[in-house]
Write a structure and sequence with these properties.
88 residues; mainly alpha; 2 helices; 93% helix; rod-shaped
């Protein structure tokens, strides 16, 4: 009876130790990012896509600002012309 209990205890200790060592190893690998080759490639692609979206958004914003500047300049010219017409 004690022999069986001792055998189970020894096996549990051995497998538990192996599981602990593997757990610490994979945790360390995850923390250092050594196995993240595919995920870093996906992350890089995602970052590239986000940067391209930001660039496109900024280009659109630049066009809108130019249009607003044109409208403001035309309105200011119209106001000046109206002032000149009323002063004369």
């Amino acid at each position: 009876m004690w022999d069986q209990i001792m055998a189970v205890f020894i096996l549990a200790t051995i497998f538990g130790g192996i599981a602990l060592v593997l757990g610490v190893y994979f945790w360390g690998v995850k923390m250092t990012g050594r196995l993240s080759g595919k995920s870093s490639a996906r992350q890089s692609e995602e970052e590239t896509r986000i940067i391209q979206e930001i660039y496109h958004g900024l280009s659109v914003m630049e066009e809108r600002i130019e249009a607003l500047e044109t409208i403001l300049i035309e309105n200011k010219k119209g106001e000046e012309k109206t002032k000149e017409d009323t002063d004369a």
